[in-house]
Design goal:
The structure holds two protein chains of two kinds. By secondary structure, chain A is an alpha/beta fold. Chain A has one domain: TIM Barrel, CATH 3.20.20. Helix content of chain A is 29%, strand content 20%. Chain A is built from eight helices and 16 strands. The radius of gyration of chain A is 18 Å and the shape is globular. Chain B is α/β, with parallel strands linked by helices. Chain B folds into two domains: 92 residues, Elongation Factor Tu (Ef-tu), domain 3 (Beta Barrel); 111 residues, Nucleotide-binding domain of ferredoxin-NADP reductase (FNR) module (Rossmann fold, 3-Layer(aba) Sandwich). Chain B is built from six helices and 16 strands. The chains are: A alpha/beta, B alpha/beta. The structure holds flavin-adenine dinucleotide and flavin mononucleotide (FMN). Flavin-adenine dinucleotide (FAD) binds next to β4, β6 and α2 of chain B. The site of flavin-adenine dinucleotide has 22 residues of chain B, from β4, β6 and α2.
Chain lengths: 308, 267
């Protein structure tokens, strides 16, 4: 037995982190909601709920529905808006020694740019994560993230407004995710978050009504893990910027799988709803795996898939 | 009333889990940390034991607190409650709580009219106890499908609450809805500083709200909704709430609720 103490510290896309475990946007609020259960200082990074230029009310109810090994959500990006975030949420997060990554969204490019400018000027933002799965008002509600040209335009625009590390969060609801991944890389993304929720739906057969008021919603949780892993692997083989892998990660072993597929870091989402300590459990699980395999860091694991 | 209680996620053992009425169980477990902080109307988020295949936890109001022990009174609805009902003494479960806000009970209502429909009465028992401790005059109105499913009447009477029953089939008490009983009580009893507290199916709560507005009596409702995290982050469990400014806001049942003023809810 060797007694190598693994080091989890990493630098991903210019974000220095104590470990490769982040929280996934929309599943960890603004951090404060979890302090009864975990020490935020022990996380790799806190990724906050998607922020828009003005507060959004969100969708009508019902907004969530449990499906086998997963859940559907159509929250509609209810959030406090960028000013509310900077005034009311960010000061609290500055009390911690943890990088804060702000997920941003908008219905048109201008809104993304406005939010980016304000965050760039704010104190305590470590990076921006661009959610390109939002419906684009100018394209009949089609999401930016399904079209390489729209992705290019949006990422270039945001890139021009900030020197902060820029992550682009890819939608799985595309024919070929590598096309969008390359577009984002070419437009100046420092890293890619893979994946957002997979579009799905569920029906109450007695009333013949959809289970969500919005009819369709995003599927998350273990149900999407195989899809997420496949997409991380595909993107890893298509770009040279780092990938943050997410989709159904419940424990350290799931996270290791993502690393082997090509993720330099991971994010824990829906698992936070089931186990408020999930993100730290993943950190511990990764450490145990590295110890067991006599590895000093996860770097060698990243993309180490042995293809027969 | 919003309360910043410290929350715990604890493993614990089932002490007992008994059928108390047709289709309804009472589960008791020891949770000293949660018991110490629990306020009327607050709830726990219960992890359904492994192997059930269910992902999300299920929310249940804290029914009673006795020393280190808490109980929850629940109705069999679907898979989650079905799995819970099979738990035996010393089986382990995980419980997150105490969660949510609490009822406003001062100045002491005279009388407090507690209206529970079905398992909704479970959300009003700690409140009933708190009202009695404060010396408030309280009336209990319990609605049920039939006598076999009747809940909590003895528990309410044991703490000195005058209790009235309504059943859909007339097998006991008033033949009809508990909201009809509510109207009758409001007409026949002296109402000095009345306050209505209600929990039950949406349809019942809408009628309670209408009655409360007609009689100009303040009413507080314990709301229910599908719930994800129960910690305020997923924004799945919201209800539509009227704002003083004239607009509305989606507020979280788990955080701003479960207790809301009836007049603020937009159905
Ligand atoms: C804050 C809060 C406190 C609660 N307290 C209690 C309590 O003390 N006692 C209690 O019995 N229940 C209580 N509930 C309701 C309880 O959480 C649900 O009945 C339970 O989650 C159902 O889980 P299940 O897996 O058995 O059913 P599921 O499989 O989740 O649901 C089966 C079907 O029933 C529907 N359904 C879900 N909840 C309800 C409901 N409340 N009434 C009618 N249909 C429903 C679902 O939409 C679905 O179609 C509370 C809910 C909330 C939000
Ligand atoms: C309730 C909920 C809200 C979410 N909100 C956002 C959001 O605001 N912005 C975003 O980019 N992703 C959002 N996501 C997606 C998650 O960040 C994550 O990409 C996805 O859920 C997959 O990971 P998981 O299976 O571990 O949850 C949300 C997911 C859920 C379940």
């Amino acid at each position: 037995m060797n007694n190598i103490q693994p080091s989890l510290e990493i630098d991903v896309a210019g974000i220095r982190m104590k470990n490769p475990v982040m929280t996934a946007s929309g599943t960890f609020g603004y951090g404060s909601e979890y302090v009864d259960f975990i020490d935020l200082n022990k996380l790799g990074a806190v990724v906050v709920k998607g922020i828009t230029s003005v507060p959004w009310a969100g969708n009508s109810m019902p907004r969530i529905f449990e499906t086998p090994s997963g859940m559907l959500n159509a929250i509609g990006l209810q959030n406090v808006g960028v000013d509310g975030f900077i005034d009311k949420k960010l000061p609290y997060l500055r009390n911690f020694d943890v990088p804060v990554i702000v997920n941003i969204c908008g219905e048109q490019v201008g809104e993304y740019l406005e939010v980016t400018e304000k965050l760039d000027a704010a104190d305590g933002v470590a990076a921006i994560e661009l959610n390109i799965s939002c419906p684009n008002l100018h394209c009949g509600g089609m999401s930016f993230g399904v079209d390489p040209k729209l992705t290019d335009e949006l990422v270039k625009g945001v890139r021009g407004k900030t020197t902060l590390p820029l992550l682009v969060k890819l939608s799985p609801n595309v024919t070929d995710i590598t096309v969008i991944a390359r577009a984002a890389e070419g437009a100046g993304a420092d890293g890619l978050s893979v994946i957002n929720t997979a579009l799905g739906m569920a029906i109450d057969i007695n009333t013949r009504r959809p289970q969500l008021a919005n009819v369709t919603g995003g599927l998350s949780g273990p149900a999407i893990k195989p899809i997420a892993l496949r997409m991380v692997w595909q993107v890893y083989n298509a770009v040279s910027i780092p990938i943050i892998g997410m989709g159904g990660i419940m424990n350290g072993e799931d996270a290791i799988e993502f690393c082997i597929a090509g993720a330099a870091a991971v994010a824990v989402g829906t698992a936070n709803f089931i186990n408020p300590r999930a993100s730290l459990d993943v950190v511990e699980g990764i450490t145990e795996y590295l110890e067991r395999h006599g590895m000093r860091s996860i770097e060698k694991l990243v993309g180490s898939l042995e293809v027969p | 009333m919003l309360v910043p209680t410290k929350k715990f996620d604890l493993p614990t053992e089932v002490i007992s889990n008994e059928l108390v009425a047709e289709n309804h169980y009472l589960l008791r477990c020891s949770c000293p940390e949660i018991a110490a902080g629990a306020l009327p109307g607050q709830f726990i988020h219960v992890l359904i034991p492994q192997g059930s295949g269910l992902l999300l936890r299920r929310p249940f109001t804290i029914y009673t607190v006795e020393g280190d022990e808490i109980t929850m009174l629940y109705q069999l609805i679907g898979e989650g409650t079905n799995v819970l009902s099979s738990l035996k003494r010393s089986d382990s479960i995980r419980v997150l709580g105490p969660l949510g806000n609490t009822f406003e009970i001062s100045p002491a209502p005279d009388p407090a009219v507690i209206v529970g429909g079905g398992a909704g009465i479970a959300s009003l028992m700690l409140l009933a106890a708190a009202l009695r401790e404060n010396g408030a005059h309280a009336l209990g109105l319990v609605g049920s499908m039939n006598s076999a499913r009747l809940l909590s009447v003895e528990d309410l009477e044991a703490i000195g609450i005058e209790t009235y029953i309504a059943t859909d089939d007339g097998s006991v008490g008033h033949h009809g809805f508990v909201t009809e009983l509510l109207m009758e009580i409001l007409e026949t009893h002296e109402m000095k500083n009345p306050q209505i507290y209600a929990c039950g199916p949406d349809g019942m709560l809408r009628v309670v709200t209408k009655i409360a507005l007609d009689y100009r009596i303040p009413a507080q409702l314990a709301m229910e909704n599908r719930m994800g995290c129960a910690l305020g982050v997923c924004l799945g469990c919201v209800c539509k709430v009227r704002m003083p400014s004239g607009g509305f806001e989606y507020q979280r049942v788990c955080t701003e609720g479960p207790v809301f003023n009836a007049e603020d809810i937009i159905w």
